[in-house]
């Protein structure tokens, strides 16, 4: 709910045991508010990356945004 209400709230991808919540986040708030997170050292970065890349209902461009361009935009502010 906070993500819809406040444009400065972002979500990150780590620690989700399944991928369906990530797909739901992208559909509800848009891919531009999702950031890749590894939760290192508690989770294996490679597993978190595979989880994100395995979202078959999500466009490759949306995944690229979470992996790269969203952070570039956010951190350049």
From TrEMBL:
* Domain (Amidohydrolase-related) ranges: 3-75
SUPFAM superfamilies attached to this UniProt entry: Metallo-dependent hydrolases (SSF51556)
> Which segments does the entry list as coiled coil?
none
Q: Where are the transmembrane segments?
A: none
What InterPro entries is this protein classified in? Amidohydro-rel, Metal_Hydrolase
What GO annotations for molecular function exist for this entry?
A: hydrolase activity
Q: What is this protein called?
A: Amidohydrolase-related domain-containing protein
The record lists the organism as marine sediment metagenome
